[in-house]
Amino acid sequence: MNIYQKIDLICERLEGFRLYNPSLSKLSYSGGRDSHLLLFIIRNILKYNNEQYPAIYAKTHNEFEEIRHRIEEQDITIVDNHRRVFEIFRAEGLPLFGKQFSKYFNDVHVKHWNIQLTNERIKEDFENRCEWAISCGLCLSEKCCALLKEDILKKHKSRIVGIRREEGGRRSTGRSAEYDFCVKNSKVLFKPIFDITRSELGEMEKALKIDPLNIYNYLDRTGCVMCGFGTKKQIAEKINYLRWYEPSRAKFYIEYFKEYLKYRKIKF
């Protein structure tokens, strides 16, 4: 299939889900490249407004400024569960390294579950990270995303959540990997609606004349500014971007995560 045929297929799936599940055809909009492409298709090709084909954004009060401006310009519904990131940090723990490790830390050192890791390399890495976190008096958790965004999106029954399986996590495993599904099955969550590569995403944006945001010249993925998840490269790129475009937030991020950045040997 060429890129235009793939766009047509995405259109067909969006239409098909709306036809068979009209009350559940809602896009979980994040302001990122994937969800913005889907929103563009719904609004500009399929010609549905927000009443006909809703898009829901869960406000975190922790967005990059460029992303926030894009969100505010769209025909979408913005919902707010009135949670704040630092409140969640205090109540649940910090999101550091990645969701898998933060959940492991919480299960082992907060819930006191007996979890045996079979992969020796991962086991050693996780034990070293845990030792460092405990020595700093930190509590870690992966719950931030759920409490800030996912829970309220589920409450609003937002079913369509993205495109690329390569984005990882729960989009690429189990039933969520079945993106060639029957649209009559209302229990299947669109995770993703269609599997495209990063280069294909860029081709689609070009074909549809979607102006890319400047932030994607620096970052592959965006999300909450005050998030400690990511590779060393991703975190370093975020700090560099913030230094250029949101310097006060860069300074705050570096100060807040200073010991963590030192431990991961991320230059700042």
In short:
This protein is mainly alpha-helical and 268 residues long. It has helices at residues 3-20, 33-45, 65-72, 85-92, 99-109, 120-135, 144-155, 198-207, 232-245, 247-256, 258-263; strands at residues 27-28, 55-58, 77-79, 96-97, 228-229.
General description of the model:
- The chain has 268 residues and is mainly alpha-helical.
- It has 2 domains: 150 residues, 3-Layer(aba) Sandwich (Rossmann fold); 45 residues.
- 47% of the residues lie in helices and 5% in strands.
- The chain is built from 11 helices and 5 strands; from the N terminus they run αβαβαβαβααααβααα.
- The strands form 2 sheets. It has a 3-stranded parallel β-sheet with strand order 1-2-3. It has a two-stranded parallel ribbon with strand order 4-5.
List the helices and strands and how they pair.
Blueprint: H1 3-20, E1 27-28, H2 33-45, E2 55-58, H3 65-72, E3 77-79, H4 85-92, E4 96-97, H5 99-109, H6 120-135, H7 144-155, H8 198-207, E5 228-229, H9 232-245, H10 247-256, H11 258-263
Helix pairs in contact: 9-10
Count of helical stretches? 11
Give the helices and strands as they follow along the chain.
HEHEHEHEHHHHEHHH
Based on the coordinates given, report the CATH architecture of the largest domain: 3-Layer(aba) Sandwich
Determine the N-to-C terminus distance: 44 Å
What profile does the largest beta sheet have?
A: 3 strands, parallel
The secondary structure category is mainly alpha
Shape: globular
Total discrete domains: 2
Number of strands: 5
The first-level CATH class of the largest domain is given as Alpha Beta
Q: What value does the Rg take, in angstroms?
A: 20 Å
CATH topology of the largest domain: Rossmann fold
